[in-house]
Design a protein that fits this description.
The complex is a heterodimer. Chain A is mainly alpha-helical. Chain A is built from 13 helices and two strands; from the N terminus they run αααββαααααααααα. In chain A, strands 1-2 form a two-stranded antiparallel sheet. Chain A starts with a helix and ends with a helix. Chain B is of the alpha/beta class. In chain B, a hairpin with a 2-residue loop joins strand 1 and strand 2 (about 40-50). Chain B has helices at about 5-15, 65-70, 100-110, 125-135, 140-155, 155-160, 175-185, 205-215, 230-235, 260-265, 270-275, and strands spanning about 25-35, 40-50, 55-60, 80-90, 95, 110, 190-195, 220-225, 240-245, 250-255. Chain B has one domain (about 5-275): P-loop containing nucleotide triphosphate hydrolases (Rossmann fold), CATH 3.40.50. Helices cover about 35% and strands about 25% of the residues of chain B. Chain B starts with a helix and ends in a 5-residue tail after the last helix. Chain B has eleven helices and ten strands. Classes of the chains: A mainly alpha, B alpha/beta. The interface of A and B includes residues 118, 208, 213, 222 and 233 of A.
Chain lengths: ~325, ~280
């Protein structure tokens, strides 16, 4: 009885599921519409940014990239000056600081997780890392502002400035908030992302290569340095591109700890600004003036920089992959 | 028993049997056992490895051949929960005695693996000299000479001398395995361990490796694990036959000159195995 009921159900189900010509047509239509929507939104998005920033590009020209002053002219009778040098430098500097710290510490952590942490603890460590990667960036920002900034102001800053030549190279900090602190907070923020990926990349290095290396008389250190890391380098590069993408576009956390000053020296201990942070903090004042266009123009620059980096890293990965023919 | 084996064994019986262990000994195994997390995988293996000869470890899957081989160059050190007991001597040095660092020991005992494993990010040249570089050799003239010498010894020099800067992945499987042999030889080890070195290769590449093994024994002592009894009969001078015991630990059944083991084994289980009754 049961068998009969089942088989009749199956037959009915199969009949109901069999796609008729018109159903397939509708399915294709839905996909086309969805894909078309995506295309329209993309064009709309890029088009708006270009459209809104066009007047600034025209009025400021190269000054937008190299200029040091950001002075809206509204109400003063003077022409607006929108120089993006401080934001561009700030973005590059904080991202670089973040990447150096994150890649060094993150790669070491991933090697440790793969080769030195006992099997039982591995899952625990991996879970913690992945949880940290999911923490919203504003939390890192608040932590940086309330915990790290005072520490920078009272301890780290004075110490670094006291090193001979420290002030000349690094500057001095007043409130702790600085490009260096922003870079550090970014590093802490992107570390889990970097470790989550690099841990798997390093884990994917064939064990046979580790054994080959050791069987030639290599030390463990040599094996990690000369065999594991070179073999994993493509994946590690991918992990750092992703981390850099996160760092370069980070807004809230950075604007809480970078100091928010359009500086001219870019010394790490002094306050500064980044493109993303500046757009977010200036928005309120900009509405209704030509500053809106200038902020859009900064946004366009950030977009181009990110795009260029993405293309560059893809090319590099593809080229290395061809050269080494490793998958 | 297939006809080839019969012919081969008949041919073997006509020759005088010399035990290579009457000459110099490269390694001595004394009651060697390997356990993983308390579970014994190989128990109480005792035999001498004659210098400048080929010693084959044969036996069915699970008999502990590879496990035993990997204990000889302390490769189990990496595995958590692995414990090697008994004594292994390399010349007069105790492999597990602690007086010699594992890195020094492994440069004296080279290894070739089941699947060719050239370093994928290194050129052919860098692969061959990698062991020397690990051991601190930097001088280019020494590296160049060693690369050519060991590639010649591995019968690969003529095939790749014009493209030493290319990557290992551009070679065929058999060439890759000979590259790995050259890489191991460049460090000038006293003993070369080979773990089923032809199991991933086609018959022609296999034949080349077997010829190479016969040529190499004048410069290095070879211990080879093989599934293939014909291969053991063809290339080795001494054969150790292992079998999984009742508690699933590999045990040594018989160690004898290859000619003797394949023609007049002392143990009936050896006869059963070489006649293909199990395995």
């Amino acid at each position: 009885m049961v068998a009969t009921a089942n088989s009749s159900q199956t037959a009915a189900g199969a009949e109901g599921r069999s796609p008729s010509a018109s159903a397939r047509g509708a399915y294709e239509w839905i996909l086309l519409v969805v894909a078309g929507l995506f295309g329209i939104v993309s064009i709309w998005f890029v088009g708006t940014i270009i459209w809104q920033s066009a007047s600034t590009f025209k009025s400021q020209g190269l000054y937008l990239l190299t200029g040091a002053n950001w002075v809206p002219g509204a109400g003063t009778g003077l022409p607006s000056q929108y120089g993006g040098r401080a934001m561009i430098f700030g973005t590059i500097e904080t991202s670089l600081i973040a990447m150096v710290i994150a890649v060094v510490i993150g790669t070491g952590t991933s090697l440790a997780i793969n080769f030195f942490v006992p099997q039982k603890m591995k899952t625990f460590v991996a879970t913690v890392v992945e949880l940290l990667a999911a923490v919203p960036s504003v939390v890192y920002g608040v932590w940086g502002m309330l915990v790290l900034a005072p520490w920078f102001m009272n301890t780290v800053g004075p110490f670094l400035s006291s090193i001979p030549g420290g002030t000349a190279v690094l500057g001095t900090t007043v409130a702790g908030k600085s490009l260096l602190l922003a870079g550090l907070v970014l590093a802490v923020m992107v570390l889990p992302t970097y470790v989550a990926i690099s841990r798997e990349v390093i884990g994917a290095v064939p064990h046979e290569l580790v054994e080959a290396s050791l069987s030639l008389g290599a030390t463990r250190w040599q094996t990690l340095w000369k065999t594991v890391l070179p073999t994993a380098r493509i994946g590690l590069f991918g992990a750092s591109s992703l981390a850099l993408g996160r760092a370069i576009g980070e807004t809230v956390a950075v604007s809480l700890v970078c100091g928010g000053v359009v500086g001219t020296t870019f010394k790490p201990l002094e306050p500064g600004v980044t493109i993303a942070g500046w757009i977010a903090t200036q928005w309120g004042e900009a509405v209704g003036s030509d500053q809106i266009g200038a902020l859009f123009a900064l946004g366009a620059i950030l977009m181009v920089v990110s795009l260029a980096m993405s293309v560059f890293s893809r090319r590099l990965v593809a080229r290395q992959r061809r050269a080494a023919a490793v998958v | 028993m297939n006809e080839n084996m019969v012919n081969m064994m008949n041919a073997l019986e006509d020759q005088a049997i010399v035990d290579p262990r009457t000459g110099p000994i490269a390694m001595r195994l004394n009651k060697v056992s390997v356990a993983f997390n308390g579970r014994v995988a190989v128990r109480d293996v005792t035999f001498d490895v004659p210098a400048n000869n080929v010693t084959a470890l044969i036996g069915p899957s699970g008999s502990g051949k590879t496990t035993l081989l990997r204990s000889l160059n302390r490769l189990h050190d990496l595995t958590k929960g692995a414990k090697v007991s008994g004594q292994i001597l390399l010349g007069d040095d105790d492999v597990y005695g602690g007086a010699i660092p594992a890195t020094v020991l492994r440069s004296r005992i080279g290894m070739v693996f089941q699947r060719p494993n050239p370093f994928p990010t290194m050129s052919l040249y860098d692969n061959v000299v990698s062991g020397l570089r690990f051991n601190g050799v930097k001088k280019k003239s020494i590296l160049d000479a060693a690369a050519e010498e060991s590639l010649r010894a591995a019968a690969l020099w003529d095939e790749i001398k014009d493209r030493l800067k290319a990557h290992g992945s551009t070679l065929s499987g058999g060439q890759q395995q000979r590259l790995c042999i050259a890489r191991a030889l460049a460090v000038e080890p006293e003993v070369l361990l080979m773990d089923e070195p032809t199991s991933a290769l086609d018959p022609i590449a296999t034949q080349k490796i077997e010829e190479l093994i016969s040529q190499l024994k004048s410069r290095v002592t070879i211990v080879i694990v093989t599934h293939n009894m014909q291969q053991a009969a063809r290339v080795s001078d001494l054969t150790a036959f292992l079998l999984m015991g009742e508690d699933r630990a590999g045990e040594q059944i018989e160690v004898a000159p290859t000619l003797k083991l394949f023609s007049q084994p002392d143990d009936p289980r050896t006869m059963d195995y070489i006649q293909g009754r199990f395995g």
